[in-house]
Amino acid sequence: MELNKSIYMDISILDYSKITIYLFYYDVMKPKYQNNIKLVYIDTDSYEIKIKTDNLYEDFKEINNYMDFNNYP
Question: Tell me: the pLDDT tens digits for 40-59?
Answer without folding.
Answer: 998 877 889 999 999 988 99
